[in-house]
Amino acid sequence: MKKTEKQELTFSEAYEELSKIALILENNELPLESLSEKVTRATFLADWCKKKLREIETHVENILDEKTKNSD
Fold first, then answer.
1. How does pLDDT run along the chain (72 residues), one tens digit per residue?
2. Which residue among 2, 11, 41, 62 has the highest number of C-beta atoms inside a 10 angstrom radius?
């Protein structure tokens, strides 16, 4: 069963699944009939990972900004 964002997919799970799909595609181990499904899933996972990374980046920047403000 594939997890979706609502099922609390973790970054590690998403990245691992995305890596597996990439490896399958690189090795041409995918039947043509499944290509569209895998590419759609890989796109979802890549977008989801980018979103999570942006959220973390923003959170870290906010923490560092607060630390800098409090140091002055």
1. 566 545 689 999 999 999 999 999 999 988 888 999 999 999 999 999 999 999 999 999 999 988 888 876
2. 41
Single-letter code of the amino acid located at 63: I
Predicted TM-score of the model (pTM) = 0.78
Q: How far is the C-alpha of 63 from the C-alpha of 6, rounded, in Å? A: 27
* 42 and 22 Cβ atoms separated by less than 8 Å: yes
Nearest-Å Rg of the Cα atoms of the chain is 17
Buried b (16+ CB within 10 A) or exposed e, 33-48: eeeeebeeebebbeeb
